[in-house]
């Protein structure tokens, strides 16, 4: 089937490009990165190809032909990566069992399949959508089919004809393209979602392993993705008459636990893993951000190996500790080798710049975190080039997305969804909402190095943005920045749990 051939070609295309710029912690990391980068680039190429041939009766035919031509060109021209000390070395992996890595990834795959098909399915000629997700899927499935059954080039939202689209639509375009290539629409959406979620969890594992040199911590961090640490469990459990009653209440619950706050959306589960079952394009968007962050941290550790808490290098440049059979590093990283990869930073900037039409909230999150890294870490010239590239590529998309915004809403907005906000109330809200994570983060920061503390500070720069700015017409959408921060918080919480 053409759809499966497209997915395979997309992933191989991503691998051809990624190995030209990045190195990998593991084979799982390489596959996940290749899939996500291939997904982003192939979607843009296919969409722009279809847009360029919008005069045709079916532009998607030409869009796919354009992608396959570029894929063939990349397969032949990008097979060899440039000579670079960085790319010609392999990271020394933390000691651990590859079998346990695969067991956890297999469990994540099963859970991802259940989560996606339990919230969106197609049976008996009808869509089956979970109750709280019908508003998301109702609009987005229509959008996906507008590219297949309609002639939506230049693109408009099917519910608002005549207006240029002002919604991050590329994920849904790709789902529609897979339907055009032969897949059922629901299967197209779910396959992209399952693979994206699995890739995201693998990248969380890779990022955690790079940060803390521990495979066990990496597995805990990926597992914490599925767990909320809100203190709202406390009043729920106190209200139960017995242990058995609590178990029965949990098993038969059909609603999210109320947070105890009367603010908008507090009983919608937007800060739980269920959000990712509804906001499918958010999963892969966070994955794109992690691809770039893994690259940045790995490059920094390569140039300054003393920030890596893992095995040390001898004076001769060889690993002084035993390994578990994974790759060995030979040769001391030099400052000169770090000055050469300008093109990799530019490419990483292009990936971030391609985000607004995929998920604009993650684009904003990426810029906030990267700007913080610019000020908190050395090698500011390369970071500035990455950020400048992202802005140059992404700003036109942002302007088009916001050009139809009605009214003159101010960018500054204090309080997020909190009624009558005060600094004390905001801090109390954050403390209650993320509960146990804060305790674990504090423990982690006590034991970790200054490098790790500064990196966490860069991630936490997302929090003031949530409560000080209106990033869209509906300030409630700021919660997506909290979802991004929660993933990074879980990585540090995992370290504290294992410590």
Molecular structure report:
The structure is a single chain. By secondary structure, the chain is mainly alpha-helical. The chain is 62% helix and 2% strand. The protein has a two-stranded antiparallel ribbon.
* Structure annotation, total helices: 20
Order of helices and strands: HHHHEEHHHHHHHHHHHHHHHH
Mean pLDDT: 87
The portion of residues forming beta strands comes to: under 5%
Strand order across the biggest sheet? 1-2
Low-confidence stretches: 310-336
Oligomer: single chain
Distance between the termini: 48 Å
Radius of gyration based on Cα positions: 23 Å
Helix content: 55-70%
Number of strands: 2
Overall outline: globular
Characterize the largest beta sheet: strand count, sense, and whether it forms a barrel: 2 strands, antiparallel
Global structural class = mainly alpha
Short descriptors:
499 residues, mainly alpha, two-stranded antiparallel sheet, 20 helices, 62% helix
List the helices and strands and how they pair.
Blueprint: H1 2-18, H2 27-52, H3 59-77, H4 98-119, E1 120-123, E2 126-129, H5 134-148, H6 170-180, H7 185-212, H8 215-224, H9 233-238, H10 243-251, H11 275-278, H12 280-303, H13 335-339, H14 342-353, H15 360-376, H16 380-402, H17 423-447, H18 450-460, H19 462-468, H20 479-498
Antiparallel strand pairs: 1-2
Helix pairs in contact: 1-2, 1-3, 1-6, 2-3, 2-6, 2-7, 2-12, 4-7, 5-6, 6-7, 7-8, 7-12, 8-20, 12-14, 14-16, 15-16, 15-18, 17-20, 19-20
């Amino acid at each position: 089937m053409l759809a499966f051939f497209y997915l395979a070609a997309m992933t191989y295309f991503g691998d051809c490009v990624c190995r030209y710029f990045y190195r990998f912690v593991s084979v799982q990391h390489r596959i996940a990165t290749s899939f996500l980068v291939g997904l982003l680039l192939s979607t843009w190429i296919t969409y722009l190809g279809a847009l360029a041939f919008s005069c045709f009766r079916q532009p998607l035919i030409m869009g796919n032909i354009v992608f396959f031509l570029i894929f063939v060109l990349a397969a032949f021209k990008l097979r060899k990566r440039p000579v670079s000390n960085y790319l010609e070395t392999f990271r020394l992996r933390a000691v651990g069992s590859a079998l346990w890595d695969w067991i956890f990834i297999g469990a994540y795959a099963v859970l991802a399949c259940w989560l996606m098909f339990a919230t969106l399915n197609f049976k008996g000629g009808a869509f089956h959508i979970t109750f709280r997700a019908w508003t998301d899927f109702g609009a987005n499935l229509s959008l996906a089919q507008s590219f297949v059954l309609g002639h939506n080039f230049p693109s408009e939202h099917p519910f608002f004809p005549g207006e240029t689209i002002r919604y991050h639509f590329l994920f849904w375009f790709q789902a529609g393209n897979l339907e055009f290539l032969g897949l059922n629409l629901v299967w197209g959406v779910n396959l992209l979602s399952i693979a994206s979620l699995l890739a995201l969890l693998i990248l969380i594992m890779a990022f955690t392993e790079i940060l803390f040199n521990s495979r066990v911590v990496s597995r805990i961090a990926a597992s914490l993705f599925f767990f909320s640490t809100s203190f709202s469990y406390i009043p729920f459990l106190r209200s139960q008459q017995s242990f058995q009653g609590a178990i029965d209440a949990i098993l038969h619950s059909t609603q999210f636990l109320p947070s105890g706050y009367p603010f908008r959306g507090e009983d919608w589960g937007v800060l739980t893993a269920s959000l990712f079952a509804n906001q499918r394009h958010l999963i892969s968007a966070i994955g794109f951000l992690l691809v770039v962050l893994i690259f940045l941290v790995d490059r920094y550790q390569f140039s300054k190996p003393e920030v890596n808490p893992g095995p040390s290098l001898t004076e001769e440049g060889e690993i002084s500790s035993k390994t578990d059979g994974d790759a060995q590093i030979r040769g001391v990283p030099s400052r000169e080798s770090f000055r050469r990869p300008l093109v990799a930073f530019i490419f990483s900037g292009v990936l971030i710049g391609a985000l607004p039409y995929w998920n604009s909230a993650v684009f904003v999150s990426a810029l906030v975190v990267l700007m913080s890294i610019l000020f908190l870490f050395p090698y500011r010239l390369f970071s500035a080039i990455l950020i400048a590239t992202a802005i140059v590529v992404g700003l036109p998309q942002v302007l088009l997305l916001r050009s139809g915004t009605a009214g003159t809403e101010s960018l500054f907005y204090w309080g997020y969804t909190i009624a009558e906000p005060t600094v004390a109330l905001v801090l109390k809200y954050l403390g209650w909402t993320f509960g146990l994570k804060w305790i674990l983060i504090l423990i982690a920061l006590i034991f970790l190095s200054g490098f790790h503390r500064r990196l966490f500070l860069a991630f936490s720069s997302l929090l003031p943005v949530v409560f000080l700015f209106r990033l869209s017409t509906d300030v409630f959408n700021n919660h997506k920045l909290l979802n991004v921060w929660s993933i990074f918080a879980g990585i540090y919480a995992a370290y504290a749990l294992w410590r």
